[in-house]
Amino acid sequence: SQEKKKTNSKPKHLHEQEIPYRLRELMKSREEMKNPKSRKRRKADSQLSGTATIGSKEKPAAPGDIPVPTFKRRKREGEQAYIRRMEQETQRVLFLTQNQLQREPEKEEPEPEKSQKKKEFQNKRLAKMRRKKEEKKVAMLEKALFQDPVQFGEVAMQPPALTVKPRKGVAKEK
């Protein structure tokens, strides 16, 4: 007898409606505004339950490294509680270091050199690029030969001769 709820369907019983999520959230926030003391308590409890903070100023460690804790006495934390918390954290770090795998970074192999095929391919590619560059230079020099540099104020004795026939229309002979 389990029927799926439809999103915009009419309620079966008008007096038995579920309170919308947004309205519940508004009601909750109103209650919190009325009772500000409960919020302070909750904040203090969450601070006491946390462990030591991790030093964030240090550079990022390797994936297997254990973060080094930094200690700072919290608000409303007694001296004995502070010392107890430090002891627990140091014991935890000691335990983790003793049970950590031994790493020997000196014995790690360096990156293997490029394979012979890869070297050949790269050399071919570089040679091709150089060849293209040379061809481009030659083309630019040829183009520069066909250009006639005209100085400012130079007088032309006759108009340029057109060697190409017009696309449309018939070329008239003189």
Estimated share of beta-strand residues: under 5%
What's the mean pLDDT score? Answer: 79
CA gyration radius, whole angstroms: 41 Å
| Shape estimate | elongated
- The strand order across the widest sheet is 1-2
Order of helices and strands: HHEEHH
Helical fraction:
40-55%
Termini distance?
103 Å
| Broad structural category | mainly alpha
User: Main beta sheet, described?
Assistant: 2 strands, antiparallel
Low-confidence stretches: 51-58
| Count of strand segments | 2
Number of separate helices: 4
Walk me through this protein's architecture:
It is a single chain. This protein is mainly alpha-helical. Among the domains are: 17-50, no CATH class; 65-100; 115-144. The protein has four helices and two strands, in the order ααββαα. A two-stranded antiparallel ribbon has the order 1-2. It is elongated, with a radius of gyration of 41 Å. The termini are far apart. Mean pLDDT is 79; it is low at 51-58. Residues 1-132 are annotated as: Disordered. Residues 14-35, 76-90, 112-123 have a biased composition (Basic and acidic residues).
